[in-house]
Amino acid sequence: MLTYLGSYRGSYRRLTAAAVSVITIFSGVFLTASPASAGVTVDGGGSTWSSIAVTQWAADVARQGLSINYQANGSTAGRVFYYSEQVDFAVSEIPFQAEYRDATGTAVTNEVALAQKRPWVYLPIVAGGTSFMYNLVINGKRFTDLRLSPDVLAKIFTGAITRWNDPAIVGENPGVALPAIPVKPTIRSDGSGTSAQFTAYMASEAPSVWSAFCRKVGLPANCPATSLYPEFDGSTAQQFSDGVAAFVAAPYNNGAITYVEYGYAKQRSFPVASLLNAGGYYAQPTAQAVAIALQGARINPDGTQVLAGVYRNPDARAYPVSSYSYMIAPTTTAKPFSAEKGDVLGKFILYFLCAGQQKAAQLGYSPLPKNLVQLGFDAVAKIPGAPAVPSIDTCANPTITGDFITGAAPPPPASAKKTATTGEGNGGPGQTNGASGVIGGTGVSGVTGVVGGGRVVDGQLLTASKPLALKTSSDDGTLGYLLIALLLGAVVFAPPLTAVAMRRRRAKSGS
Fold first, then answer.
1. Residue (of 450, 481, 441) closest to 363 by Cα position
2. Of 1, 87, 428, 446, which one is least surrounded by beta carbons within 10 A?
3. In 3-state terms, what secondary structure has residue 386?
4. Could you give the CA distance from residue 421 to residue 412 in angstroms, rounded to a whole number?
5. Could you say which DSSP state residue 233 is in?
6. Pick from 199, 201, 147: nearest CA to 175
7. pTM for this structure?
8. pLDDT tens column, 469-506
9. What torsion, rounded to 10 degrees, do the Cα atoms 218, 219, 221, 224 define?
10. Can you name the residues that pair with 133 across neighbouring β-strands?
11. Domains identified in the chain and CATH numbers
């Protein structure tokens, strides 16, 4: 009897210890706010290109008591609000500009100097493709297979091509009865990182078209990329990513086209143009195509990116207008930041670098590869009050867990290859940029495949992602909670059930 009782007590102690251990592990994983930072809200602003992802992640961590207030007001506004001490962090497609230029091309602001009072660190937040969403109905049906070369694309967005049946567009789309209706290029009216990325691409890959446009609108002939897209005859300007996407999607805007992060087109189930890459194939901005293209990026020591090698990546699967956006995070407690805010911000960053990236493809982005996650981890260590950075091997980012499969992306179909047909349009012959070299340097990880996907429902957030290091198949951590419940049940109910069994055994022995 004593042997049985001793055995039971030992088993009970082990069971209790196991339950406490599991509860402790899961509590640590859930990234809840610490007592000191409970009730603290961290304010951010900036990029609308990144907004779909940031909004989703903020909703995810709100379930765990972390309060992130993000205002998608454009990359330029985000940077201004950061150095003006109005937000705790900013998100931008481009870093602070030493020569920020106005609509005339004149350098008016040294953002780098203005931001010195709030030292910062750049960290990658999400990768994606700048897509070319369009609304084109042919014979009563929406056309969904538009193909464009860099040169023809640039002519559309500089006013050199004004009608959809222009021979240059027809040459890219042989056999398609393109309508004789006006092209309605829709540009951003606000200071936009998306505009900066797109104009940088045109300046690099269609330099003669872009330079001619600059002269036409009164900018320097060799004008650099600009956050303020110049308006031109036939163009329409709208505010923010959601604004241009909504305008193009309107039923009365047949013929409209815009540049916008791919997720905005996915939300509305609208097509985007397949863009000719340096490998000679037309590519869509899928998660795989973006990841492949970014293998050509050169990453600077401060985490910023050089994209010429992305534009000219010769891989036939690459989408050429691919990039990632930055968070600008403080490294001191200069106002309005504090260590308590650092705790919340650090946990938010650890979430979106890891589990939050699981939804990147579904939202219209591409998950960050391991080397960029490590850059983010290094940045978190510089944020005052941020939690200790875990081992990167516990990070539930799909490029680390293996859910985003290296080398799995298939080659493009033969039908996606550029034909020999070349159209002669209003702006001259449609040309394919012949550059194919990839700039050397520290490249982005060679992640080339993705599992999953799915359309995002317009106006609805997806189910919140699973916590940082929880690698179950359940998005909401159900398996973890079930395990805790079972162990707690064993701890709570084992003693009385065992006592009953022991009394029955004694009674039986005495009879």
1. 450
2. 1
3. coil
4. 19
5. T
6. 147
7. 0.79
8. 333 233 344 444 444 445 445 444 555 555 555 555 55
9. -160
10. 258, 272
11. 2-26+478-510 (no CATH), 31-429 (3.40.190.10)
